[in-house]
Write a structure and sequence with these properties.
alpha/beta, Rossmann fold, 5-stranded parallel beta sheet, 7 helices, 5 strands, elongated
Length: 172
């Protein structure tokens, strides 16, 4: 028995409905990067807020070398593997990546993650790069990369409740 033309209608309708639904369920992924040296409650509060506002949170952990460049010291309070393990264990964090950059920025890491996100979720996926604390969109080295990759930059304007430097000073 040959299929009748009208037998294809349910398949066509379901395909069309799936397409329409996918237009309204576009993911929004937030990328952020921190040194996390050490990880403290303010980091966790910010992650939880991100997870409440958007679909996924991907976190870039700066390397030990980047910390030494930033602080000018040869000692790292918590090494990169320790920091990655702690941050990846947080329920609000979906993915963790160690920075691939050799300078103090995370430009190359953002390019890499944006490619992974768009490969996994589609080219139209909205990506936000979140900057926290004392860094704003106007004074970050990642500004041009974000523009080139069509990534929105969000400055977070709430006050810092904890500071990694204070924790290191108490211990050392």
């Amino acid at each position: 028995m040959r299929p009748r033309w009208w037998m294809w209608i349910p398949i066509f309708v379901l395909t069309w409905l799936f397409f329409i639904c996918s237009l309204f369920t576009m993911k929004t992924v937030v990328i952020t990067s921190w040194y996390f040296n050490p990880v403290h409650p303010w980091h966790i509060e910010c992650f939880e807020l991100c997870k409440d506002l958007w679909d996924e949170l991907w976190v870039i952990i700066n390397t030990d070398e980047q910390i030494m460049v930033k602080t000018g010291e040869n000692d790292v309070f918590q090494d990169e593997q320790f920091r990655m393990k702690v941050v990846s264990a947080l329920k609000s964090v979906d993915r963790v990546m160690l920075s691939v950059d050799i300078d103090a920025s995370v430009c190359e890491s953002i390019k890499k993650i944006a490619g992974l996100i768009r490969q996994e979720y589609g080219a139209d996926t909205k990506i936000i790069f979140g900057k926290w604390g004392d860094r704003f969109a106007s004074n970050i080295p990642e500004l041009q990369v974000c523009k080139d990759c069509s990534i929105e930059i969000r400055d977070w304007l709430w006050a810092k409740t904890h500071n990694s430097s204070d924790y290191r000073a108490k211990v050392m």
